[in-house]
Specification:
The chain is an alpha/beta fold and 377 residues long. The protein has 13 helices and 16 strands. An 8-stranded mixed beta sheet has the order 3-2-1-4-5-6-7-8, with helices on both faces. It has a 5-stranded mixed beta sheet with strand order 9-16-15-10-14, covered by helices on one side. Strands 12-11-13 form a 3-stranded antiparallel beta sheet, with no helix packed on it. The longest helix is centred in the middle third of the chain and has 20 residues. It starts with 6 loop residues before the first helix and ends with a strand. 36% of the residues are buried.
Protein backbone atom coordinates (compact mmCIF):
# COMPACT_ATOMS: atom_id res chain seq x y z
CA UNK A 1 0.00 0.00 0.00
CA UNK A 2 1.37 3.40 -0.97
CA UNK A 3 2.14 5.74 1.89
CA UNK A 4 -0.42 8.08 0.31
CA UNK A 5 -3.21 5.49 0.36
CA UNK A 6 -4.60 4.56 3.78
CA UNK A 7 -5.71 0.96 4.19
CA UNK A 8 -8.82 1.77 6.24
CA UNK A 9 -10.02 4.41 3.77
CA UNK A 10 -9.55 2.00 0.89
CA UNK A 11 -11.27 -0.85 2.76
CA UNK A 12 -14.34 1.19 3.69
CA UNK A 13 -14.70 3.02 0.36
CA UNK A 14 -17.77 2.41 -1.80
CA UNK A 15 -17.04 2.20 -5.53
CA UNK A 16 -19.37 1.65 -8.48
CA UNK A 17 -17.99 0.15 -11.68
CA UNK A 18 -20.10 0.44 -14.82
CA UNK A 19 -19.17 -2.10 -17.48
CA UNK A 20 -17.71 -5.60 -17.02
CA UNK A 21 -15.83 -6.01 -20.28
CA UNK A 22 -12.06 -6.13 -20.68
CA UNK A 23 -11.56 -2.76 -19.03
CA UNK A 24 -14.07 -3.49 -16.27
CA UNK A 25 -12.36 -6.80 -15.51
CA UNK A 26 -9.02 -5.06 -15.00
CA UNK A 27 -10.53 -2.28 -12.88
CA UNK A 28 -12.44 -4.69 -10.63
CA UNK A 29 -9.45 -6.96 -10.20
CA UNK A 30 -7.23 -4.02 -9.25
CA UNK A 31 -9.76 -2.57 -6.82
CA UNK A 32 -10.05 -5.84 -4.93
CA UNK A 33 -6.28 -6.38 -4.89
CA UNK A 34 -5.88 -2.89 -3.44
CA UNK A 35 -8.29 -3.77 -0.62
CA UNK A 36 -11.60 -2.19 -1.64
CA UNK A 37 -14.39 -4.25 -0.04
CA UNK A 38 -17.61 -2.48 -1.09
CA UNK A 39 -18.45 -2.60 -4.79
CA UNK A 40 -21.46 -2.04 -7.01
CA UNK A 41 -21.12 -3.59 -10.48
CA UNK A 42 -23.36 -2.65 -13.42
CA UNK A 43 -23.66 -4.50 -16.75
CA UNK A 44 -26.48 -6.00 -18.84
CA UNK A 45 -24.51 -8.49 -20.94
CA UNK A 46 -23.69 -12.20 -20.81
CA UNK A 47 -20.27 -13.84 -21.08
CA UNK A 48 -19.38 -14.94 -24.62
CA UNK A 49 -16.49 -16.99 -25.97
CA UNK A 50 -14.97 -13.86 -27.51
CA UNK A 51 -14.61 -12.35 -24.03
CA UNK A 52 -12.20 -15.04 -22.84
CA UNK A 53 -9.10 -13.70 -24.60
CA UNK A 54 -9.32 -10.31 -22.93
CA UNK A 55 -11.14 -10.69 -19.60
CA UNK A 56 -9.26 -12.14 -16.68
CA UNK A 57 -12.33 -12.98 -14.58
CA UNK A 58 -14.24 -15.04 -17.19
CA UNK A 59 -13.94 -18.77 -17.94
CA UNK A 60 -15.01 -21.07 -20.79
CA UNK A 61 -17.76 -22.59 -18.67
CA UNK A 62 -19.22 -19.12 -18.04
CA UNK A 63 -19.58 -18.53 -21.76
CA UNK A 64 -21.02 -22.00 -22.39
CA UNK A 65 -23.65 -21.41 -19.72
CA UNK A 66 -24.27 -17.84 -20.98
CA UNK A 67 -23.93 -16.50 -17.47
CA UNK A 68 -24.48 -12.85 -16.67
CA UNK A 69 -21.23 -10.90 -16.48
CA UNK A 70 -22.21 -9.28 -13.18
CA UNK A 71 -22.81 -12.67 -11.56
CA UNK A 72 -19.49 -14.05 -12.75
CA UNK A 73 -17.38 -11.10 -11.63
CA UNK A 74 -19.05 -11.10 -8.19
CA UNK A 75 -18.18 -14.76 -7.77
CA UNK A 76 -14.56 -14.38 -8.98
CA UNK A 77 -13.88 -11.27 -6.90
CA UNK A 78 -15.02 -13.16 -3.79
CA UNK A 79 -12.41 -15.78 -4.60
CA UNK A 80 -9.76 -13.06 -4.36
CA UNK A 81 -11.15 -11.60 -1.13
CA UNK A 82 -13.95 -13.46 0.68
CA UNK A 83 -14.72 -10.35 2.78
CA UNK A 84 -15.81 -8.36 -0.25
CA UNK A 85 -19.37 -7.10 -0.58
CA UNK A 86 -20.55 -6.89 -4.19
CA UNK A 87 -23.95 -5.54 -5.22
CA UNK A 88 -24.83 -6.36 -8.81
CA UNK A 89 -27.17 -4.57 -11.20
CA UNK A 90 -27.96 -6.42 -14.40
CA UNK A 91 -29.24 -3.49 -16.39
CA UNK A 92 -28.57 -0.36 -18.39
CA UNK A 93 -26.88 2.56 -16.64
CA UNK A 94 -29.23 4.89 -18.52
CA UNK A 95 -32.34 3.49 -16.83
CA UNK A 96 -31.65 0.87 -14.17
CA UNK A 97 -29.28 2.57 -11.71
CA UNK A 98 -31.03 4.44 -8.92
CA UNK A 99 -29.57 7.83 -8.09
CA UNK A 100 -29.85 7.07 -4.37
CA UNK A 101 -27.32 4.27 -4.81
CA UNK A 102 -24.91 6.55 -6.70
CA UNK A 103 -25.27 9.05 -3.86
CA UNK A 104 -23.78 6.46 -1.49
CA UNK A 105 -20.65 5.93 -3.58
CA UNK A 106 -17.29 7.61 -3.00
CA UNK A 107 -16.43 7.34 -6.68
CA UNK A 108 -17.82 5.83 -9.90
CA UNK A 109 -15.61 4.24 -12.57
CA UNK A 110 -16.84 4.04 -16.16
CA UNK A 111 -15.62 1.14 -18.30
CA UNK A 112 -18.05 1.57 -21.17
CA UNK A 113 -17.65 1.75 -24.94
CA UNK A 114 -20.12 4.42 -26.06
CA UNK A 115 -20.53 8.16 -25.66
CA UNK A 116 -24.16 7.64 -24.70
CA UNK A 117 -23.21 5.42 -21.74
CA UNK A 118 -20.59 7.95 -20.62
CA UNK A 119 -23.16 10.72 -20.94
CA UNK A 120 -25.53 8.77 -18.67
CA UNK A 121 -22.85 8.08 -16.07
CA UNK A 122 -21.92 11.75 -16.10
CA UNK A 123 -25.54 12.81 -15.59
CA UNK A 124 -25.96 10.49 -12.61
CA UNK A 125 -22.72 11.61 -10.98
CA UNK A 126 -23.40 15.30 -11.49
CA UNK A 127 -26.86 14.97 -9.98
CA UNK A 128 -25.48 13.00 -7.03
CA UNK A 129 -22.44 15.31 -6.66
CA UNK A 130 -19.98 12.43 -7.05
CA UNK A 131 -16.71 12.24 -9.04
CA UNK A 132 -16.19 9.63 -11.72
CA UNK A 133 -13.27 8.20 -13.68
CA UNK A 134 -13.62 7.39 -17.37
CA UNK A 135 -11.53 5.01 -19.43
CA UNK A 136 -11.51 4.24 -23.14
CA UNK A 137 -9.50 1.84 -25.29
CA UNK A 138 -8.95 1.29 -29.02
CA UNK A 139 -6.34 -1.01 -30.56
CA UNK A 140 -3.09 -0.09 -28.75
CA UNK A 141 -4.42 3.29 -27.63
CA UNK A 142 -6.20 4.29 -24.46
CA UNK A 143 -7.34 7.31 -22.50
CA UNK A 144 -8.29 8.06 -18.92
CA UNK A 145 -10.10 11.14 -17.61
CA UNK A 146 -11.55 12.35 -14.32
CA UNK A 147 -14.76 14.34 -13.95
CA UNK A 148 -15.59 16.20 -10.74
CA UNK A 149 -18.81 18.21 -10.24
CA UNK A 150 -18.09 21.92 -10.38
CA UNK A 151 -14.79 21.41 -12.20
CA UNK A 152 -15.12 19.12 -15.20
CA UNK A 153 -18.17 17.75 -17.04
CA UNK A 154 -18.21 15.12 -19.78
CA UNK A 155 -21.22 16.67 -21.53
CA UNK A 156 -19.55 20.08 -21.64
CA UNK A 157 -16.47 18.54 -23.30
CA UNK A 158 -18.38 16.94 -26.19
CA UNK A 159 -17.61 18.51 -29.56
CA UNK A 160 -19.90 18.54 -32.63
CA UNK A 161 -18.93 15.03 -33.76
CA UNK A 162 -19.34 13.66 -30.26
CA UNK A 163 -22.83 15.13 -30.02
CA UNK A 164 -23.76 13.52 -33.35
CA UNK A 165 -22.63 10.11 -32.09
CA UNK A 166 -24.43 10.77 -28.82
CA UNK A 167 -27.68 11.45 -30.64
CA UNK A 168 -27.29 8.16 -32.53
CA UNK A 169 -26.14 6.35 -29.38
CA UNK A 170 -23.29 4.74 -31.29
CA UNK A 171 -20.37 2.85 -29.71
CA UNK A 172 -17.01 4.59 -29.88
CA UNK A 173 -15.23 1.75 -31.60
CA UNK A 174 -15.47 -1.79 -32.91
CA UNK A 175 -11.89 -2.79 -32.33
CA UNK A 176 -12.52 -6.39 -31.32
CA UNK A 177 -14.72 -7.09 -34.32
CA UNK A 178 -12.16 -5.50 -36.66
CA UNK A 179 -9.41 -7.78 -35.35
CA UNK A 180 -11.59 -10.86 -35.70
CA UNK A 181 -12.44 -9.96 -39.31
CA UNK A 182 -8.79 -9.77 -40.40
CA UNK A 183 -7.57 -12.63 -38.23
CA UNK A 184 -5.16 -10.59 -36.10
CA UNK A 185 -4.61 -10.94 -32.37
CA UNK A 186 -6.63 -8.34 -30.44
CA UNK A 187 -4.56 -6.04 -28.26
CA UNK A 188 -7.48 -5.24 -25.97
CA UNK A 189 -6.09 -7.08 -22.95
CA UNK A 190 -2.78 -5.17 -23.10
CA UNK A 191 -4.19 -1.67 -23.29
CA UNK A 192 -7.02 -2.52 -20.88
CA UNK A 193 -4.48 -3.48 -18.22
CA UNK A 194 -2.73 -0.11 -18.58
CA UNK A 195 -5.81 2.12 -18.68
CA UNK A 196 -7.55 0.08 -15.99
CA UNK A 197 -4.58 0.57 -13.68
CA UNK A 198 -4.62 4.34 -14.26
CA UNK A 199 -8.36 4.46 -13.58
CA UNK A 200 -8.02 2.67 -10.25
CA UNK A 201 -5.06 4.85 -9.30
CA UNK A 202 -7.15 7.98 -9.94
CA UNK A 203 -10.15 6.53 -8.11
CA UNK A 204 -8.01 5.87 -5.03
CA UNK A 205 -6.85 9.49 -5.13
CA UNK A 206 -10.46 10.69 -5.19
CA UNK A 207 -11.18 8.51 -2.16
CA UNK A 208 -8.39 10.38 -0.32
CA UNK A 209 -9.83 13.87 -0.60
CA UNK A 210 -7.83 15.29 2.32
CA UNK A 211 -4.56 14.10 0.79
CA UNK A 212 -5.56 15.53 -2.58
CA UNK A 213 -6.44 18.91 -1.09
CA UNK A 214 -3.13 18.98 0.80
CA UNK A 215 -1.26 18.65 -2.51
CA UNK A 216 0.34 15.31 -1.66
CA UNK A 217 -1.42 13.78 -4.68
CA UNK A 218 -2.30 15.22 -8.09
CA UNK A 219 -5.59 14.30 -9.71
CA UNK A 220 -6.14 13.76 -13.42
CA UNK A 221 -9.21 16.02 -13.23
CA UNK A 222 -9.02 18.62 -16.01
CA UNK A 223 -6.50 16.54 -17.95
CA UNK A 224 -6.60 13.52 -20.23
CA UNK A 225 -4.03 10.75 -19.98
CA UNK A 226 -3.28 9.34 -23.44
CA UNK A 227 -1.35 6.12 -24.04
CA UNK A 228 -0.22 4.91 -27.46
CA UNK A 229 1.46 1.52 -27.40
CA UNK A 230 2.53 1.07 -31.01
CA UNK A 231 5.36 3.58 -30.59
CA UNK A 232 5.22 3.68 -26.79
CA UNK A 233 4.24 7.29 -26.26
CA UNK A 234 2.29 8.87 -23.43
CA UNK A 235 1.10 12.41 -22.97
CA UNK A 236 -1.18 14.61 -20.92
CA UNK A 237 -3.64 16.95 -22.61
CA UNK A 238 -5.91 19.61 -21.21
CA UNK A 239 -9.45 18.30 -20.99
CA UNK A 240 -11.60 20.56 -18.88
CA UNK A 241 -14.91 22.25 -19.52
CA UNK A 242 -17.71 23.23 -17.17
CA UNK A 243 -20.45 25.42 -18.56
CA UNK A 244 -22.67 26.88 -15.84
CA UNK A 245 -25.60 26.81 -18.26
CA UNK A 246 -25.32 23.05 -18.91
CA UNK A 247 -28.46 21.32 -17.62
CA UNK A 248 -26.69 17.96 -17.31
CA UNK A 249 -24.81 18.81 -14.15
CA UNK A 250 -27.63 20.20 -12.06
CA UNK A 251 -27.08 18.77 -8.58
CA UNK A 252 -30.17 17.20 -7.02
CA UNK A 253 -30.12 18.46 -3.44
CA UNK A 254 -31.19 18.53 -0.72
CA UNK A 255 -32.42 14.95 -0.76
CA UNK A 256 -35.11 13.85 1.68
CA UNK A 257 -35.65 10.22 2.67
CA UNK A 258 -39.09 8.66 2.34
CA UNK A 259 -40.61 5.24 3.03
CA UNK A 260 -42.13 4.79 -0.42
CA UNK A 261 -41.13 1.69 -2.37
CA UNK A 262 -41.57 0.69 -6.01
CA UNK A 263 -44.77 -1.16 -5.10
CA UNK A 264 -46.54 2.10 -4.13
CA UNK A 265 -49.14 3.19 -6.69
CA UNK A 266 -49.12 6.54 -8.43
CA UNK A 267 -52.23 7.57 -6.51
CA UNK A 268 -50.66 6.62 -3.18
CA UNK A 269 -47.36 8.32 -4.02
CA UNK A 270 -49.02 11.59 -4.99
CA UNK A 271 -51.09 11.54 -1.79
CA UNK A 272 -48.00 10.93 0.36
CA UNK A 273 -46.04 13.68 -1.36
CA UNK A 274 -48.94 16.12 -1.20
CA UNK A 275 -49.30 15.51 2.55
CA UNK A 276 -45.55 15.64 3.21
CA UNK A 277 -45.07 18.91 1.31
CA UNK A 278 -48.45 20.40 2.20
CA UNK A 279 -48.95 21.10 -1.50
CA UNK A 280 -51.95 20.89 -3.80
CA UNK A 281 -50.25 20.68 -7.19
CA UNK A 282 -47.81 17.74 -7.09
CA UNK A 283 -46.10 15.98 -10.01
CA UNK A 284 -43.44 13.26 -10.27
CA UNK A 285 -41.03 14.04 -13.11
CA UNK A 286 -39.92 10.96 -15.04
CA UNK A 287 -36.39 12.22 -15.64
CA UNK A 288 -34.79 8.93 -16.71
CA UNK A 289 -37.41 7.75 -19.17
CA UNK A 290 -40.98 8.42 -20.25
CA UNK A 291 -44.05 6.18 -20.01
CA UNK A 292 -45.85 5.10 -23.20
CA UNK A 293 -49.50 4.04 -23.15
CA UNK A 294 -49.95 3.52 -26.88
CA UNK A 295 -48.38 3.87 -30.32
CA UNK A 296 -50.24 4.82 -33.48
CA UNK A 297 -49.22 4.03 -37.02
CA UNK A 298 -48.59 7.03 -39.21
CA UNK A 299 -50.21 5.46 -42.26
CA UNK A 300 -53.62 4.69 -40.76
CA UNK A 301 -53.57 6.13 -37.22
CA UNK A 302 -54.39 2.70 -35.80
CA UNK A 303 -53.60 2.61 -32.08
CA UNK A 304 -51.95 -0.25 -30.23
CA UNK A 305 -51.83 -0.27 -26.45
CA UNK A 306 -48.30 -0.54 -25.04
CA UNK A 307 -48.30 0.43 -21.32
CA UNK A 308 -44.51 0.28 -20.90
CA UNK A 309 -41.55 2.58 -20.23
CA UNK A 310 -40.30 4.09 -23.50
CA UNK A 311 -37.09 2.06 -23.49
CA UNK A 312 -39.13 -1.16 -23.91
CA UNK A 313 -41.32 0.02 -26.77
CA UNK A 314 -39.03 -1.04 -29.63
CA UNK A 315 -38.81 -4.62 -28.33
CA UNK A 316 -42.59 -4.61 -27.84
CA UNK A 317 -43.15 -3.58 -31.46
CA UNK A 318 -40.72 -6.20 -32.76
CA UNK A 319 -42.56 -8.97 -30.90
CA UNK A 320 -46.13 -7.83 -31.57
CA UNK A 321 -47.80 -10.04 -34.22
CA UNK A 322 -49.50 -7.10 -35.96
CA UNK A 323 -46.61 -4.63 -35.72
CA UNK A 324 -43.58 -6.82 -36.40
CA UNK A 325 -41.64 -5.62 -39.43
CA UNK A 326 -42.81 -2.01 -39.23
CA UNK A 327 -40.03 0.52 -38.65
CA UNK A 328 -40.18 2.55 -35.45
CA UNK A 329 -40.09 5.70 -37.58
CA UNK A 330 -43.56 4.72 -38.82
CA UNK A 331 -45.12 5.14 -35.38
CA UNK A 332 -46.28 8.05 -33.28
CA UNK A 333 -45.55 7.43 -29.63
CA UNK A 334 -47.91 8.80 -26.96
CA UNK A 335 -45.92 9.29 -23.78
CA UNK A 336 -45.89 10.93 -20.38
CA UNK A 337 -42.89 12.71 -18.89
CA UNK A 338 -44.70 13.86 -15.77
CA UNK A 339 -47.14 12.03 -13.53
CA UNK A 340 -49.72 14.08 -11.62
CA UNK A 341 -53.41 13.86 -10.63
CA UNK A 342 -54.41 14.04 -14.31
CA UNK A 343 -52.38 10.91 -15.16
CA UNK A 344 -55.02 8.38 -16.28
CA UNK A 345 -53.36 5.27 -14.84
CA UNK A 346 -53.31 6.02 -11.11
CA UNK A 347 -53.24 2.34 -10.12
CA UNK A 348 -49.86 1.72 -11.77
CA UNK A 349 -46.96 1.19 -9.36
CA UNK A 350 -43.84 3.31 -9.44
CA UNK A 351 -41.95 0.20 -10.56
CA UNK A 352 -44.29 -0.26 -13.51
CA UNK A 353 -43.50 3.30 -14.59
CA UNK A 354 -39.87 2.18 -15.00
CA UNK A 355 -38.41 3.86 -11.90
CA UNK A 356 -35.42 1.81 -10.67
CA UNK A 357 -34.59 0.56 -7.18
CA UNK A 358 -32.81 3.10 -4.96
CA UNK A 359 -33.93 5.97 -7.16
CA UNK A 360 -34.53 9.58 -6.17
CA UNK A 361 -37.85 11.07 -7.24
CA UNK A 362 -37.76 14.54 -8.75
CA UNK A 363 -40.97 16.10 -7.45
CA UNK A 364 -42.48 19.39 -8.57
CA UNK A 365 -44.82 20.77 -5.89
CA UNK A 366 -46.55 24.13 -6.23
CA UNK A 367 -43.81 25.23 -8.62
CA UNK A 368 -40.85 24.17 -6.46
CA UNK A 369 -38.40 21.29 -6.93
CA UNK A 370 -37.96 18.59 -4.29
CA UNK A 371 -35.97 15.34 -4.25
CA UNK A 372 -37.06 12.21 -2.37
CA UNK A 373 -34.97 9.06 -2.06
CA UNK A 374 -37.12 5.95 -1.91
CA UNK A 375 -36.59 2.87 0.23
CA UNK A 376 -34.52 0.29 -1.61
CA UNK A 377 -37.05 -2.55 -1.49
Amino acid sequence: MSRNFLQNQVKTAHVMVVGCGALGNEVLKNLVLMGVEHLVVVDFDIVEMGNLTRSVLFRKEDAEAQRLKVDVVAERLAEINSAIEVKTICGDVAYDVGLGLVRRMDVVIGCVDSRWARYCINRLCMRANKPWVDGGISDLEGTARVFVPGINCYACNLGPEGRKDLARRLPCSGIIHRHEMVGSAPTTSIVASIIGAVQVQEALKLIHQDTLKAGELTSLCGKMFYYEGEHLTMKMADYQAFDDECAEHTCWEPVQLCDMTLSVTVEEALAILSYTLNANDVAICLSGDSYVDYVSERSNDRRTEVMLPARKVEAFVEQHPHLRGILMSEFYQHEYHRVDKTFPYQSLSLGELGIPVWDILHVLADGRDYYFEMSKV
